[in-house]
Design brief:
Blueprint (H helix, E strand, L loop, with lengths): L3 H10 L3 H8 L3 H9 L7 H11 L3 H4 L6 H11 E5 L7 H9 L5 E4 L4 H4 L2 H12 L4 E6 L4 H10 L4 H12 L9 E6 L5 E6 L2 E6 L11 E5 L6 H15 L1 E3 L11
Parallel strand pairs: 2-3, 3-4
Antiparallel strand pairs: 1-7, 2-5, 4-8, 5-6, 6-7
Length: 256
């Protein structure tokens, strides 16, 4: 059976299929398939966009989806604690988080310089490497435009690129360890993300403020929740687009 709710919502909106498709960034034929073949459902991001465009609950257009109230409730359960500033997060929490990792150990930052000076963190990385757990570091490419912009945003200019280079030097003993990989990214980060399995610390980036003064969300994956997975998917996208390096000085060929 066709998705008559979606068809009706489009008709009531006064838009044509072509107009809906253009607003969503897909083809009109794709929208037609969503209507005529319920098995060909859009990706979740397009479901959200369509529901917003047509001013309907996603669960109305696709009844198998949960209501916004249900998603919100699950999202609240994902939040373990909110810290107003990174500087007030207990120092032990970072190492405790990564010490618990059994499957995923990810660090996505521009420099994360403060963490590079933590001897306990270095020890955890070595232990996880020895245990066969993959460890992924994603630092900003110091020659990229994104790093230059972030340095300007924080009011430290070229010092941001310098912090990244210094961070890589501090991480020198970790290069070459089994399962430990380093990559440089040129993306615009809105959060620094620190993930261990199904827990994560998300440090927001605020214009004109250093990350140490920005809020940190301590979150966990919860069945039915979407917050953790949204951040986790962001990590994967950066990882896929980032450039592998094999030493602290392997900066040639960046995308500057």
């Amino acid at each position: 059976m066709a998705n008559e709710r979606l068809r009706g919502a489009i008709i009531e909106s006064g838009m044509t299929l072509d107009q809906v498709a253009e607003r969503l960034g897909v083809s009109a034929k794709t929208v037609e398939r969503w209507i005529n073949d319920p098995k060909r459902q859009p990706y979740r991001r397009f479901k959200y966009a369509t529901a917003s465009l047509l001013q309907r609950e996603m669960s109305y257009l696709w009844p198998e989806e949960r209501t916004s109230a249900e998603v919100t409730e699950a999202g609240n359960a994902e939040l373990i604690k909110l810290y107003p500033h990174r500087s007030v997060v207990p120092n032990r929490l970072w190492t405790q988080l990564y010490a618990s990792a059994q499957r995923s150990f990810d660090v996505l930052v521009y420099s994360g310089f403060w963490l590079t000076e933590d001897a306990a963190f270095h020890q955890v990385v070595k232990e996880k490497s020895a245990a066969g757990i993959p460890v992924r570091f994603m630092l900003g490419d110091p020659d990229s435009a994104a790093v230059a912009v972030r340095g300007a945003d924080e009011g430290i200019g070229g010092a941001m690129a310098g912090k990244i280079r210094n961070a890589l030097v501090n991480y020198a003993p970790l290069f070459g360890l089994p399962g430990v990989e380093f990559r440089l990214h040129s993306t615009t980060l809105y959060n620094s993300l620190y993930r261990a399995d199904d827990q994560m610390l998300a440090n927001g980036h605020l214009y004109g403020v250093g990350a140490y003064m920005a809020p940190v969300l301590h979150i966990q994956r919860v069945a039915g929740g979407e917050l953790f997975d949204a951040y986790a998917e962001s990590i994967e996208r950066v990882w896929e687009s980032a450039r592998p390096i094999t030493s602290p000085t392997d900066l040639a060929g960046s995308d500057a």
